[in-house]
TrEMBL record:
It comes from the Bacteria. The keyword Hydrolase applies. The lineage of its organism: Bacteria, Bacillati, Bacillota, Bacilli, Lactobacillales. Residues 5-335 form the Sulfatase N-terminal domain. This is Sulfatase-like hydrolase/transferase. Gene3D superfamilies: Alkaline Phosphatase, subunit A (3.40.720.10). The keyword GTP-binding does not apply.
């Protein structure tokens, strides 16, 4: 019987317009080659545009609000299973090489291989630091200036050593059903890369996107605070050539080179494998006068690259896609039943026929940036729904946003209070509220429904009046009904109790 193999390749902080097949100004020939042989998604979205929570959705098939990792440095719940655990429990060999960021440790991780993945190939960032040996080398690995050292070679970098470990896995598993994750930290800062990558974008700047001029006056207060001194800068000051940008983009091309090393082995040994490329999130890089990422759903951070090879070849789709669908897709490809608690759907039908659209709306969320930091805005409760035409962003404690993506693709004009968009806005709002209910969002409540622009919604102590219990049919006994003490018959039901009311 023909073996089934899946290779998931990830980079960190790669904007969609940092990939050549999306933006010809970028040099990423190996990712471009993957797109030429596969299906490229224009409207793929991260579930939460910050490292840990984004990855939690990718590897569990549950949104951060369900799996417990609503911020960096907060671990997955003990009873949450990754796709590696689910596959390995079904006899499929799983390897994870590279950045993990799901164990609740600091940025580098704990250096401990989690359940479900083969310890032989485990190589998180703490493992890399220990591999370097000396304290001096560790420090060098965290300084951007190291990229300009004359003696720096690619052998020193995390990306190269991650590729090496991935190549070992591929060499050892030719006749095996497997799932391999190759998770690069690059181009995330400090963006270490050797010559010629370190200077190849010395004179680069992005096109003059209209949102460099966004004054944020009709946007959430958070965004104006986040912008800081950049709020008063011109587009020319925000979008210009700089050493920092050049190194970041150079590292992006360097990690494409390392992806090419992995793909050469995949092409030689596993030409029929399902290959998925994506990134966890992007970076604002001055758009909307913002840097890095935070509680927003702007395309620069939330609309990520996604390419799948193994179905149709050389096609592009504008269908809505989401990281939450990756686990169901991988399990479906492996002919495994999909657990009820997965919150996405299999994309396989769409991968084989792009006329089939898996989603008409996708969802993005935010709780906070990192539990360890007081800064970055702290608690910021955000939920967003995006379709091809519109984007609704509910900022629970702040100004809400609504964008007409056809007429305003750079998301400059906030139409949340525009009566001409009432029907479209409310339709997306209703879908978002239903999504929060269906996924048992721990933070759901009447506050998300009762907004200043939604006069037909009234506060209700009972909210929608339902009990919504978890269904985890593989790893836990069925939860018990509060009223009977017996296994529940329906996970979702109108709430009724036998409590004595005084």
């Amino acid at each position: 019987m023909k073996k089934k193999q899946v290779i998931l390749i990830m980079t960190d902080t790669t904007r969609k317009d940092m990939v050549g097949c999306y933006n010809p100004k970028m040099v990423t020939p190996n990712i471009d080659a993957l797109a030429a042989d596969g299906l490229k998604f224009e409207n793929a979205y991260s579930c939460q545009p910050v490292c840990g929570p984004a990855r939690s959705a990718i590897f569990t098939g549950q949104f951060p609000h369900s799996n417990g990792m609503v911020t960096n440095c907060l671990a997955l719940g003990d009873n949450v299973k990754t796709v590696g655990q689910r596959l390995s429990d079904n006899g499929i060999h799983c390897g994870y090489v590279g950045k993990y960021h799901l164990d609740g440790g600091d940025y580098f991780g704990k250096g401990i291989c989690p359940e479900g993945w083969d310890e032989k190939y485990w190589y998180d960032q703490k493992t890399y630091l220990e591999d370097l040996g000396s304290d001096a080398e560790r420090v060098l690995s965290r300084q951007s200036e190291t990229s300009y050292n004359d003696d720096l070679t690619e052998d020193f970098t995390y990306a190269h050593r991650t590729s090496n470990r991935a190549l070992d896995f591929l060499k050892d598993n030719v006749d095996t059903d497997f799932f391999l994750t190759v998770s690069f930290d690059e181009p995330h800062g400090p963006s270490i890369c050797p010559a010629p990558y370190n200077t190849m974008y010395a004179d680069f700047k992005f096109d003059d996107y209209p949102n460099y001029e966004d004054d944020l006056e009709d946007k959430p207060l958070l965004q104006r605070l986040w912008a800081g001194d950049d709020l008063n800068k011109s587009a020319a000051e925000l979008n210009h050539s700089s050493a920092g940008l050049a190194l970041f983009l150079g590292c992006n091309t360097f990690v494409d080179h390392e992806i090419g090393r992995v793909m050469a082995a995949v092409n030689a040994k596993f030409p029929d494998a399902l290959v998925i490329y994506t990134s966890d999130h992007g970076d604002m890089l001055g758009s909307h006068k913002l840097q890095m990422k935070n509680a927003a759903a702007y395309k620069e951070i939330a609309n990520i690259p996604l390419i799948v090879r193994g179905g149709v070849s050389g096609q592009t789709t504008d269908a809505m896609a989401t990281h939450i669908d990756l686990v169901p897709t991988i399990m479906d490809y492996m002919d495994l039943p999909l657990p009820k608690l997965l919150e996405g759907k299999s994309m396989l039908p769409e991968i084989y026929d792009p006329a089939v659209e898996t989603n008409d709306t996708v969802y993005t969320e935010w709780t906070r940036y990192e539990v360890d930091h007081d800064g970055f805005g702290g608690l910021q409760m955000m939920r967003a729904a995006t379709s091809k035409e519109f984007k609704l962003v509910i900022n629970l404690m702040d100004k809400d946003e609504f964008y007409d993506l056809n007429n305003d693709p750079y998301e400059v004009t906030n139409l949340i209070d525009d009566p001409a968009y009432t029907a479209a806005r409310n339709d997306l709002h209703d879908k978002l509220l239903e999504h929060m209910n269906q996924t048992r969002d721990a933070y759901r409540g009447y506050q998300w429904a009762v907004r200043s622009w939604r006069q037909d919604k009234t506060p209700n102590w009972e909210n929608d009046g339902y009990t919504r219990q978890k269904e985890n049919e593989e790893y836990e006994p069925r939860e018990l009904d509060y009223d009977t003490g017996l296994p529940m018959e329906q996970a979702v039901r109108l709430k009724e109790t036998n409590d004595v009311k005084n």
